[in-house]
Amino acid sequence: MLVRLPLPHKPVSAKIVYLLTIISERVQRWKPKSMNADRGVFYAIARGIGKGEQGPQIPTILRNFKELWADLTFGGEGGSSRCLNSKDLDFLITTDDLVRHHLRWLETFGRPLWRVQQIGMRALFKRNCPEH
Q1: I need a surface site. Which of 12, 15, 18, 47 has the fewest CB within 10 A?
Q2: Residue 127 in 3-state DSSP?
């Protein structure tokens, strides 16, 4: 599975990467150096979905996602849509638990992505502000 996400310092993104990690055999990250290097996005690639430590929980996770989809689509003011927020994914892991128990893992996961972002931002500023 290939998913395009905001960089993992965003709670929603971190929770989705956490989900992929617990349900998959392996999760890789990729941030192209030529395309999107200066943008706050990356690609998560999950392999062996269903074979991770929580793989058997996929039916429950999917049921929660279906309920969330219905709430996002119809649960807003007057039955209209609403935006996703990080608390919506607390059924995966709370932000507090993510920080308390998985921060080192998240830092290790994000470091190469942030490095590419930094290089991309430098190049962007050099192109747009050549006098500096």
Answers
A1: 47
A2: helix
Let me know: does 2 contact 9? Beta carbons within 8 Å: no
Q: Chain-wide mean pLDDT for the chain?
A: 92
Look at the block and give the residue holding tokens 């991770």. 52
Q: Where are the beta strands (DSSP E) in 8-124?
A: 26-30, 41-47
Reported pTM: 0.87
What residue ranges in 1-132 does DSSP mark as E strands?
Answer: 2-6, 26-30, 41-47
Task: Please measure the distance between the N-terminal and C-terminal CA atoms of the chain and give it in whole angstroms.
Answer: 42
User: What is the per-residue pLDDT for 132?
Assistant: 58
Structure tokens at 87: 């608390």
- Residue 73 CA, distance from chain mean position: 21
Residues of the chain under the 50 pLDDT cut? none
pLDDT at residue 37 in the model: 83
Supply φ then ψ for residue 43, to 5 degrees.
-115, 130
- The contacts of residue 95 (CB under 8 Å, 6+ apart) are 11, 15, 86, 87
